[in-house]
Amino acid sequence: MPFMTVRHFTEADIPVRTELLRENKYQTNLNDFAMSAADLELADGMRRTIESGHHVKRLFTMCGSKGQVVGFSWITSIDWRSQTCELSFAVLPRYRSGFGFKAVEAAHEYLREQLHMDVIINQVLSHNTMMLSAAELDAHAQIRAEYDSYTVGQWRTACYWTVTRDDVRGRKQREQARRQEIADRVRAGVQGLS
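== Acetyltransferase (GNAT) family protein ==
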């Protein structure tokens, strides 16, 4: 079974996502709309997305290898003809250190393989270092947008970058070449011992 799976968001997921939307770090690092909305209002919005909003927004549930809900991802700014979208995600606090990167990787894979997205736009607020350090964010950022978002009483700068199908293919080829190089060195070392 895969380490991380992606499934469509269901009504059963609404209470868990509502709790996450109200979590402090989520509020600071994504947006704080959930602080001013009632539970019923949040649930109604998620239900509308499930029932009739798939052409503009899709919600997904990220699950660990035992089926446990690890977090959520969602796509917006969907351009079906150009096969592009913007990806957002939020990992439950107890899973952030162990599952965060794998959740993002699984979401990207799902969008490429199941929805045939060629370009995925990532956006992270520059102070959000829950999964990437400030230096890593700077290295990834193709665009830095000052005053992008207003959360918790402050204007926030956002870092944007794209990941294309070619980017992923190139990364996989570099990883395979690196693994092959290590395997070759190990084989050469073992042969030298005999």
